[in-house]
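note to self — DONT lose this again. spent like an hour looking for the file last time. sequence + predicted structure for the chain T wanted, 112 res
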Amino acid sequence: MHSILLQKSHDLFCLVNKLTATFPKKERYGLGLKIDASCLNLLEAIIEVEQTLPVLKDRALIVASVKNEFAAILLRLAMERNLIKETNYFAAVQFTVEIGKLIGGWRKSFRS
């Protein structure tokens, strides 16, 4: 792995993928796929950030931040619909919080 941000995103996807595999069939192929896809999109966005030229990194970080927030919202929706337990939800959201902090710190370092 290239960075701690990429590692955290990878860990988030692995956890989320295990959680969505236990969804009922109807939800697994609806919301479950959407959650998995959002985490994969987040991984892709972070790889883009790492590969982007410094002058374009701020925009790429904004995109990654939006994808991270969207993943967190989908996880909350799954918890509210009782598809994942609260403890699993909090474990997954902890990753999104850490990822958000890392993205925010990276954005702040590019602004100064």
